[in-house]
Amino acid sequence: MRSLSRAAAVIVVQLTLLAAMPAAGHHGWSGNAGEISVTGELVTALSLAGPHGTMQVRDAEGRVWDITLAPAPRTHRAGLREDTIPTGAQVTVEGERNADAARHEIKVRRVTHGDRHYDVYPPPRG
Q1: Could you confirm whether domain 32-119 is CATH 3.40.50.1100?
Q2: Looking at residues 90-97, what average pLDDT do you find?
């Protein structure tokens, strides 16, 4: 009987740890510092292969920005798909830049291409 209780306790602990794993992997917005808007050329096409959509944009000064979008299902629901914006197109991305100023990285709320807006995250509450 005692070994059955012990086995049940081990299973409960393992299930609890397993359930907590996705939450531990989510990075949220805490590593960002301030709103930014960047307009430039799409140099790496949108990818929805990872946990978040990604792409790269080169600004007028030649800096290449790593763009992090919402998770793939949310980005897709916003109307932004891997073939929506061709490489070389002008885009504007709006969101929050990385808190480390040496990193050219933006977690994006909105992507604009032509006259079309893709809101992948809702605007911040004020």
Answers
A1: no
A2: 96
